[in-house]
Protein backbone atom coordinates (compact mmCIF):
# COMPACT_ATOMS: atom_id res chain seq x y z
CA UNK A 1 0.00 0.00 0.00
CA UNK A 2 1.08 3.60 -0.48
CA UNK A 3 0.32 6.92 1.14
CA UNK A 4 -1.82 9.18 -1.08
CA UNK A 5 -0.42 12.58 -2.00
CA UNK A 6 -2.56 15.22 -0.28
CA UNK A 7 -0.24 18.20 -0.77
CA UNK A 8 -3.12 20.24 -2.19
CA UNK A 9 -5.06 20.06 1.08
CA UNK A 10 -5.52 23.26 3.10
CA UNK A 11 -3.46 23.37 6.30
CA UNK A 12 -6.54 22.84 8.49
CA UNK A 13 -7.40 19.57 6.76
CA UNK A 14 -3.81 18.35 6.92
CA UNK A 15 -3.84 19.11 10.65
CA UNK A 16 -7.18 17.33 11.06
CA UNK A 17 -5.84 14.19 9.41
CA UNK A 18 -2.60 14.37 11.40
CA UNK A 19 -4.42 14.62 14.72
CA UNK A 20 -6.75 11.83 13.66
CA UNK A 21 -3.83 9.58 12.74
CA UNK A 22 -2.37 10.13 16.19
CA UNK A 23 -5.63 9.19 17.88
CA UNK A 24 -5.98 6.17 15.60
CA UNK A 25 -2.59 4.89 16.74
CA UNK A 26 -4.04 4.91 20.26
CA UNK A 27 -7.05 2.91 19.14
CA UNK A 28 -9.44 5.87 18.79
CA UNK A 29 -10.98 6.10 15.31
CA UNK A 30 -12.91 9.36 15.28
CA UNK A 31 -15.49 10.32 14.33
CA UNK A 32 -17.38 7.10 15.00
CA UNK A 33 -19.19 5.46 12.09
CA UNK A 34 -22.15 3.54 13.49
CA UNK A 35 -25.40 2.47 11.83
CA UNK A 36 -27.69 3.09 14.81
CA UNK A 37 -26.07 6.44 15.59
CA UNK A 38 -26.51 7.48 11.96
CA UNK A 39 -30.19 6.58 12.08
CA UNK A 40 -30.62 8.45 15.38
CA UNK A 41 -28.92 11.54 13.94
CA UNK A 42 -31.21 11.49 10.90
CA UNK A 43 -34.29 11.13 13.11
CA UNK A 44 -33.14 14.04 15.28
CA UNK A 45 -32.43 16.25 12.28
CA UNK A 46 -35.78 15.64 10.57
CA UNK A 47 -38.14 14.87 13.45
CA UNK A 48 -39.20 11.82 11.41
CA UNK A 49 -38.74 8.14 12.24
CA UNK A 50 -40.39 6.04 9.52
CA UNK A 51 -37.69 4.79 7.12
CA UNK A 52 -40.32 2.96 5.07
CA UNK A 53 -40.39 -0.38 3.31
CA UNK A 54 -37.48 0.28 0.96
CA UNK A 55 -34.74 0.88 3.53
CA UNK A 56 -32.10 -1.83 3.21
CA UNK A 57 -30.81 -2.30 6.75
CA UNK A 58 -28.33 -4.98 5.68
CA UNK A 59 -26.88 -2.63 3.09
CA UNK A 60 -26.31 0.04 5.75
CA UNK A 61 -24.71 -2.46 8.13
CA UNK A 62 -22.38 -3.72 5.41
CA UNK A 63 -21.28 -0.23 4.40
CA UNK A 64 -20.57 0.64 8.05
CA UNK A 65 -18.59 -2.58 8.52
CA UNK A 66 -16.54 -1.87 5.40
CA UNK A 67 -15.80 1.73 6.35
CA UNK A 68 -14.72 0.68 9.84
CA UNK A 69 -12.58 -2.33 8.91
CA UNK A 70 -11.59 -2.31 5.23
CA UNK A 71 -11.52 1.20 3.83
CA UNK A 72 -8.44 2.80 5.46
CA UNK A 73 -10.36 6.04 5.91
CA UNK A 74 -8.50 9.13 7.04
CA UNK A 75 -10.08 11.40 9.64
CA UNK A 76 -11.47 13.52 6.81
CA UNK A 77 -12.68 10.31 5.17
CA UNK A 78 -14.42 9.17 8.34
CA UNK A 79 -16.08 12.56 8.73
CA UNK A 80 -17.17 12.48 5.07
CA UNK A 81 -18.52 8.92 5.42
CA UNK A 82 -20.38 9.73 8.64
CA UNK A 83 -22.05 12.78 7.08
CA UNK A 84 -22.86 10.92 3.88
CA UNK A 85 -24.57 8.06 5.70
CA UNK A 86 -26.61 10.48 7.79
CA UNK A 87 -27.54 12.54 4.71
CA UNK A 88 -28.70 9.40 2.92
CA UNK A 89 -30.96 8.52 5.83
CA UNK A 90 -32.28 12.09 6.05
CA UNK A 91 -33.19 11.98 2.36
CA UNK A 92 -34.84 8.57 2.79
CA UNK A 93 -36.95 9.83 5.69
CA UNK A 94 -38.03 12.97 3.85
CA UNK A 95 -38.99 11.18 0.65
CA UNK A 96 -41.03 8.65 2.61
CA UNK A 97 -42.73 11.35 4.66
CA UNK A 98 -43.57 13.44 1.59
CA UNK A 99 -45.22 10.45 -0.07
CA UNK A 100 -47.02 9.59 3.16
CA UNK A 101 -48.46 13.12 3.18
CA UNK A 102 -49.24 12.99 -0.54
CA UNK A 103 -50.01 9.32 -1.37
CA UNK A 104 -51.02 10.21 -4.92
CA UNK A 105 -47.29 10.64 -5.67
CA UNK A 106 -46.79 6.86 -5.52
CA UNK A 107 -49.58 6.32 -8.05
CA UNK A 108 -48.02 8.45 -10.78
CA UNK A 109 -46.84 6.65 -13.90
CA UNK A 110 -43.23 6.51 -15.06
CA UNK A 111 -43.62 6.04 -18.82
CA UNK A 112 -40.92 4.81 -21.16
CA UNK A 113 -37.89 5.90 -19.09
CA UNK A 114 -34.53 5.94 -20.87
CA UNK A 115 -31.67 4.19 -19.05
CA UNK A 116 -28.04 4.78 -20.09
CA UNK A 117 -25.76 2.02 -18.85
CA UNK A 118 -22.69 -0.08 -19.67
CA UNK A 119 -18.97 0.30 -19.14
CA UNK A 120 -17.94 3.53 -17.39
CA UNK A 121 -15.90 6.12 -19.27
CA UNK A 122 -17.70 5.40 -22.55
CA UNK A 123 -19.24 8.80 -23.26
CA UNK A 124 -22.39 8.17 -21.24
CA UNK A 125 -22.15 11.53 -19.46
CA UNK A 126 -21.98 13.43 -22.75
CA UNK A 127 -24.83 11.35 -24.13
CA UNK A 128 -27.03 12.09 -21.12
CA UNK A 129 -26.27 15.79 -21.45
CA UNK A 130 -27.26 15.69 -25.12
CA UNK A 131 -30.53 13.88 -24.45
CA UNK A 132 -31.28 16.34 -21.64
CA UNK A 133 -31.52 19.08 -24.28
CA UNK A 134 -34.78 17.55 -25.49
CA UNK A 135 -37.56 19.47 -23.75
CA UNK A 136 -39.56 16.25 -23.41
CA UNK A 137 -36.92 14.77 -21.12
CA UNK A 138 -36.71 15.07 -17.34
CA UNK A 139 -33.47 14.25 -15.56
CA UNK A 140 -32.13 14.55 -12.03
CA UNK A 141 -29.86 17.57 -11.73
CA UNK A 142 -26.79 17.41 -9.52
CA UNK A 143 -28.25 19.93 -7.10
CA UNK A 144 -31.48 17.91 -6.85
CA UNK A 145 -29.49 14.76 -6.07
CA UNK A 146 -27.52 16.52 -3.34
CA UNK A 147 -30.36 18.59 -1.86
CA UNK A 148 -33.62 16.85 -2.83
CA UNK A 149 -36.01 18.28 -0.23
CA UNK A 150 -38.39 19.79 -1.07
CA UNK A 151 -38.73 18.52 -4.66
CA UNK A 152 -37.99 21.11 -7.33
CA UNK A 153 -40.75 23.01 -9.09
CA UNK A 154 -40.82 23.87 -12.76
CA UNK A 155 -40.79 27.60 -11.98
CA UNK A 156 -37.72 27.48 -9.72
CA UNK A 157 -35.65 24.59 -11.06
CA UNK A 158 -33.14 27.04 -12.59
CA UNK A 159 -33.19 29.64 -9.80
CA UNK A 160 -33.38 27.55 -6.62
CA UNK A 161 -30.86 28.78 -3.97
CA UNK A 162 -29.71 25.18 -3.54
CA UNK A 163 -27.88 25.52 -6.87
CA UNK A 164 -25.36 27.96 -5.40
CA UNK A 165 -25.07 25.84 -2.26
CA UNK A 166 -24.17 22.71 -4.23
CA UNK A 167 -21.72 24.56 -6.45
CA UNK A 168 -19.88 25.68 -3.31
CA UNK A 169 -19.69 22.05 -2.22
CA UNK A 170 -18.26 21.13 -5.62
CA UNK A 171 -15.65 23.87 -5.29
CA UNK A 172 -14.49 22.28 -2.03
CA UNK A 173 -14.28 18.93 -3.76
CA UNK A 174 -11.97 20.48 -6.35
CA UNK A 175 -9.67 21.65 -3.54
CA UNK A 176 -9.42 18.10 -2.22
CA UNK A 177 -9.18 16.52 -5.69
CA UNK A 178 -7.63 19.10 -8.05
CA UNK A 179 -7.42 16.62 -10.94
CA UNK A 180 -11.07 15.61 -10.74
CA UNK A 181 -12.36 18.34 -13.06
CA UNK A 182 -10.28 16.98 -15.95
CA UNK A 183 -11.48 13.44 -15.24
CA UNK A 184 -15.16 14.11 -14.59
CA UNK A 185 -16.49 17.68 -14.66
CA UNK A 186 -19.40 18.44 -12.33
CA UNK A 187 -21.78 21.36 -12.00
CA UNK A 188 -24.93 21.75 -9.94
CA UNK A 189 -27.08 22.19 -13.06
CA UNK A 190 -25.80 19.17 -14.99
CA UNK A 191 -27.58 15.79 -14.98
CA UNK A 192 -26.56 13.40 -12.20
CA UNK A 193 -26.40 9.61 -11.97
CA UNK A 194 -29.14 7.49 -10.39
CA UNK A 195 -26.48 5.99 -8.10
CA UNK A 196 -26.78 8.99 -5.80
CA UNK A 197 -30.43 8.52 -4.89
CA UNK A 198 -30.45 4.73 -5.10
CA UNK A 199 -27.83 4.81 -2.35
CA UNK A 200 -30.28 6.56 0.00
CA UNK A 201 -31.88 3.15 0.54
CA UNK A 202 -28.41 1.54 0.76
CA UNK A 203 -28.72 -0.54 -2.37
CA UNK A 204 -26.30 0.60 -5.06
CA UNK A 205 -22.55 0.55 -5.50
CA UNK A 206 -22.00 4.25 -4.89
CA UNK A 207 -20.16 3.70 -1.61
CA UNK A 208 -17.12 2.05 -3.22
CA UNK A 209 -16.27 5.24 -5.09
CA UNK A 210 -14.97 7.05 -2.02
CA UNK A 211 -13.29 4.05 -0.35
CA UNK A 212 -12.83 0.33 -0.80
CA UNK A 213 -15.90 -1.58 0.45
CA UNK A 214 -15.54 -5.29 -0.40
CA UNK A 215 -17.88 -6.38 2.42
CA UNK A 216 -20.65 -4.29 0.86
CA UNK A 217 -19.73 -4.72 -2.78
CA UNK A 218 -19.55 -8.52 -2.74
CA UNK A 219 -23.06 -8.64 -1.27
CA UNK A 220 -24.49 -6.01 -3.61
CA UNK A 221 -23.24 -7.72 -6.77
CA UNK A 222 -25.20 -10.89 -5.95
CA UNK A 223 -28.23 -9.39 -4.17
CA UNK A 224 -31.86 -9.41 -5.29
CA UNK A 225 -32.33 -5.96 -6.81
CA UNK A 226 -36.13 -5.69 -7.05
CA UNK A 227 -36.54 -3.67 -3.85
CA UNK A 228 -33.72 -1.35 -4.93
CA UNK A 229 -35.37 -0.58 -8.27
CA UNK A 230 -38.79 -0.19 -6.74
CA UNK A 231 -37.15 2.49 -4.56
CA UNK A 232 -35.62 3.98 -7.73
CA UNK A 233 -39.13 4.32 -9.19
CA UNK A 234 -40.42 5.80 -5.93
CA UNK A 235 -37.76 8.52 -5.98
CA UNK A 236 -38.59 9.40 -9.59
CA UNK A 237 -42.24 9.75 -8.58
CA UNK A 238 -41.12 12.03 -5.74
CA UNK A 239 -38.95 14.17 -8.02
CA UNK A 240 -41.67 14.61 -10.64
CA UNK A 241 -44.38 15.45 -8.08
CA UNK A 242 -43.85 19.19 -8.63
CA UNK A 243 -42.06 19.14 -11.99
CA UNK A 244 -42.84 16.46 -14.58
CA UNK A 245 -42.05 15.87 -18.26
CA UNK A 246 -43.07 13.06 -20.63
CA UNK A 247 -40.10 10.81 -19.91
CA UNK A 248 -37.02 10.39 -17.74
CA UNK A 249 -33.40 10.14 -18.93
CA UNK A 250 -31.40 8.21 -16.35
CA UNK A 251 -27.80 7.08 -16.14
CA UNK A 252 -25.63 4.80 -14.06
CA UNK A 253 -23.13 2.34 -15.57
CA UNK A 254 -23.88 -0.24 -12.84
CA UNK A 255 -27.43 -0.69 -14.14
CA UNK A 256 -25.93 -3.17 -16.64
CA UNK A 257 -25.84 -5.76 -13.84
CA UNK A 258 -29.61 -5.57 -13.36
CA UNK A 259 -31.14 -5.47 -16.83
CA UNK A 260 -33.73 -8.11 -15.95
CA UNK A 261 -34.83 -6.14 -12.91
CA UNK A 262 -35.07 -2.87 -14.86
CA UNK A 263 -37.47 -4.47 -17.33
CA UNK A 264 -39.40 -6.07 -14.46
CA UNK A 265 -39.98 -2.73 -12.74
CA UNK A 266 -40.16 -0.67 -15.96
CA UNK A 267 -41.55 -2.98 -18.70
CA UNK A 268 -41.52 -0.21 -21.33
CA UNK A 269 -37.99 1.03 -20.54
CA UNK A 270 -35.70 2.17 -23.34
CA UNK A 271 -32.12 1.09 -22.67
CA UNK A 272 -28.98 2.58 -24.21
CA UNK A 273 -25.81 0.54 -23.70
CA UNK A 274 -22.67 2.57 -24.33
CA UNK A 275 -19.54 0.85 -25.67
CA UNK A 276 -15.80 1.44 -25.89
CA UNK A 277 -12.78 -0.83 -25.96
CA UNK A 278 -12.32 -2.01 -22.35
CA UNK A 279 -8.56 -1.52 -22.46
CA UNK A 280 -9.27 2.20 -22.88
CA UNK A 281 -12.02 2.46 -20.27
CA UNK A 282 -10.48 0.46 -17.43
CA UNK A 283 -7.40 2.64 -16.72
CA UNK A 284 -9.57 5.75 -17.03
CA UNK A 285 -12.01 4.34 -14.46
CA UNK A 286 -9.16 3.25 -12.19
CA UNK A 287 -7.73 6.77 -12.35
CA UNK A 288 -11.10 8.25 -11.33
CA UNK A 289 -11.45 5.82 -8.41
CA UNK A 290 -7.84 6.35 -7.33
CA UNK A 291 -8.24 10.13 -7.40
CA UNK A 292 -11.42 10.04 -5.31
CA UNK A 293 -10.14 7.55 -2.75
CA UNK A 294 -6.79 9.32 -2.40
CA UNK A 295 -8.53 12.32 -0.87
CA UNK A 296 -10.24 10.26 1.83
CA UNK A 297 -8.02 7.29 2.67
CA UNK A 298 -4.63 6.76 4.28
CA UNK A 299 -3.37 3.83 2.19
CA UNK A 300 -4.00 3.11 -1.46
CA UNK A 301 -2.33 0.87 -4.05
CA UNK A 302 -3.01 1.85 -7.69
CA UNK A 303 -2.38 -1.71 -8.89
CA UNK A 304 -4.94 -3.04 -6.43
CA UNK A 305 -7.45 -0.42 -7.55
CA UNK A 306 -6.98 -1.32 -11.20
CA UNK A 307 -7.17 -5.08 -10.76
CA UNK A 308 -10.18 -4.88 -8.44
CA UNK A 309 -12.13 -2.67 -10.86
CA UNK A 310 -11.18 -4.99 -13.71
CA UNK A 311 -12.59 -7.99 -11.84
CA UNK A 312 -15.79 -6.18 -10.84
CA UNK A 313 -16.52 -4.67 -14.23
CA UNK A 314 -15.74 -7.76 -16.26
CA UNK A 315 -18.33 -9.51 -14.06
CA UNK A 316 -20.91 -6.71 -14.45
CA UNK A 317 -20.51 -6.59 -18.21
CA UNK A 318 -20.72 -10.38 -18.50
CA UNK A 319 -24.01 -10.19 -16.58
CA UNK A 320 -25.21 -7.75 -19.22
CA UNK A 321 -24.09 -10.01 -22.08
CA UNK A 322 -25.92 -12.97 -20.53
CA UNK A 323 -29.06 -10.93 -19.81
CA UNK A 324 -29.32 -9.66 -23.37
CA UNK A 325 -29.12 -13.21 -24.69
CA UNK A 326 -32.00 -14.28 -22.45
CA UNK A 327 -34.33 -11.27 -22.34
CA UNK A 328 -35.65 -11.02 -25.89
CA UNK A 329 -35.76 -7.22 -25.49
CA UNK A 330 -33.39 -6.10 -28.27
CA UNK A 331 -36.05 -3.80 -29.74
CA UNK A 332 -35.86 -1.85 -26.45
CA UNK A 333 -32.05 -1.71 -26.36
CA UNK A 334 -29.82 0.55 -28.48
CA UNK A 335 -26.02 0.24 -28.70
CA UNK A 336 -24.11 3.54 -28.72
CA UNK A 337 -20.37 3.58 -29.43
CA UNK A 338 -17.88 6.02 -27.90
CA UNK A 339 -16.28 6.79 -31.27
CA UNK A 340 -19.64 7.95 -32.63
CA UNK A 341 -20.24 10.10 -29.54
CA UNK A 342 -16.95 11.93 -29.96
CA UNK A 343 -16.95 12.17 -33.77
CA UNK A 344 -20.60 13.03 -34.46
CA UNK A 345 -23.32 11.65 -32.19
CA UNK A 346 -26.29 12.99 -34.21
CA UNK A 347 -26.61 10.12 -36.73
CA UNK A 348 -26.67 7.58 -33.89
CA UNK A 349 -29.09 9.73 -31.88
CA UNK A 350 -31.40 9.92 -34.92
CA UNK A 351 -31.38 6.11 -35.18
CA UNK A 352 -31.96 5.85 -31.43
CA UNK A 353 -35.01 8.11 -31.63
CA UNK A 354 -36.36 6.13 -34.56
CA UNK A 355 -35.93 2.78 -32.79
CA UNK A 356 -37.62 4.05 -29.61
CA UNK A 357 -40.38 5.80 -31.58
CA UNK A 358 -39.46 9.25 -30.28
CA UNK A 359 -39.60 12.57 -32.14
CA UNK A 360 -36.33 14.46 -32.61
CA UNK A 361 -37.18 18.05 -33.45
CA UNK A 362 -34.94 20.24 -35.60
CA UNK A 363 -34.59 22.59 -32.64
CA UNK A 364 -33.34 19.80 -30.36
CA UNK A 365 -30.93 18.50 -33.00
CA UNK A 366 -29.51 22.01 -33.41
CA UNK A 367 -29.07 22.37 -29.64
CA UNK A 368 -27.22 19.04 -29.53
CA UNK A 369 -24.81 20.09 -32.28
CA UNK A 370 -24.11 23.39 -30.52
CA UNK A 371 -23.52 21.57 -27.22
CA UNK A 372 -20.93 19.29 -28.80
CA UNK A 373 -19.19 22.25 -30.44
CA UNK A 374 -18.88 23.95 -27.05
CA UNK A 375 -17.69 20.80 -25.24
CA UNK A 376 -14.43 19.69 -26.87
CA UNK A 377 -12.37 16.87 -25.36
CA UNK A 378 -9.97 18.17 -22.74
CA UNK A 379 -11.87 21.41 -22.15
CA UNK A 380 -11.28 21.13 -18.39
CA UNK A 381 -7.73 19.76 -18.57
CA UNK A 382 -5.99 16.64 -19.79
CA UNK A 383 -6.69 13.31 -18.11
CA UNK A 384 -3.52 11.21 -18.24
CA UNK A 385 -3.38 7.53 -17.29
CA UNK A 386 -2.04 4.17 -18.46
CA UNK A 387 -2.81 0.49 -18.05
CA UNK A 388 0.57 -0.13 -16.45
CA UNK A 389 0.00 2.56 -13.84
CA UNK A 390 -2.87 0.47 -12.48
CA UNK A 391 -1.33 -2.98 -12.80
CA UNK A 392 -3.04 -3.98 -16.03
CA UNK A 393 -2.01 -4.93 -19.56
CA UNK A 394 -3.89 -4.88 -22.86
CA UNK A 395 -3.93 -8.68 -22.96
CA UNK A 396 -5.19 -8.92 -19.38
CA UNK A 397 -8.12 -6.62 -20.13
CA UNK A 398 -8.95 -8.25 -23.47
CA UNK A 399 -9.04 -11.66 -21.81
CA UNK A 400 -11.32 -10.40 -19.03
CA UNK A 401 -13.87 -9.09 -21.55
CA UNK A 402 -13.56 -11.75 -24.24
CA UNK A 403 -17.31 -12.49 -24.59
CA UNK A 404 -18.24 -8.81 -24.53
CA UNK A 405 -15.66 -7.88 -27.17
CA UNK A 406 -16.76 -10.73 -29.41
CA UNK A 407 -20.47 -9.89 -29.11
CA UNK A 408 -19.95 -6.21 -29.95
CA UNK A 409 -17.26 -6.68 -32.62
CA UNK A 410 -14.34 -5.03 -30.83
Task: Give a description of the structure.
The chain is mainly alpha-helical. The protein has a single domain, classed as P-loop containing nucleotide triphosphate hydrolases (Rossmann fold, 3-Layer(aba) Sandwich). It has 19 helices and five strands.
Distance between the first and last residues' Cα: 34 Å
CATH H-level superfamily title: P-loop containing nucleotide triphosphate hydrolases
SSE sequence, one letter per element: HHHHEHEHHHHHHEHEHHEHHHHH
- Mean pLDDT equals 91
Specify the helix fraction band: 40-55%
Beta-sheet strand percentage?
5-15%
Present the secondary structure layout.
Layout (H helix, E strand, L loop, with lengths): L10 H15 L9 H12 L10 H13 L5 H27 L12 E5 L5 H8 L5 E2 L3 H5 L15 H15 L3 H4 L11 H4 L15 H9 L3 H14 L7 E5 L7 H7 L4 E6 L2 H17 L7 H26 L5 E5 H6 L2 H10 L6 H12 L20 H7 L1 H6 L3
Parallel strand pairs: 1-3, 1-4, 2-3, 4-5
Helix pairs in contact: 2-4, 3-10, 11-12, 13-14
Give a concise summary.
The chain is mainly α.
Features:
Rossmann fold; five-stranded parallel beta sheet; single chain; mainly alpha; 410 residues; 19 helices
Amino acid sequence: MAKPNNDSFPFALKALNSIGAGLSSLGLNLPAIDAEKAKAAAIKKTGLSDFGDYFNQEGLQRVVHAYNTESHLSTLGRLTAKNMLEDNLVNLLRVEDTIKQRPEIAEAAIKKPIFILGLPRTGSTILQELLSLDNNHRFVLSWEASEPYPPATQDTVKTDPRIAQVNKQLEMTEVLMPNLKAIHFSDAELPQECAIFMAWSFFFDHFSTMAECPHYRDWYLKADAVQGYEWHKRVLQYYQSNYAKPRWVLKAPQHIRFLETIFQVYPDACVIQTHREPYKTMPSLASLIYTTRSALTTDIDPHHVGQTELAVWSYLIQCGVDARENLNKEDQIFDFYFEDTIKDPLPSIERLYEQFDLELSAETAKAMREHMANKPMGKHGKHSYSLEQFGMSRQMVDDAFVDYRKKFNM
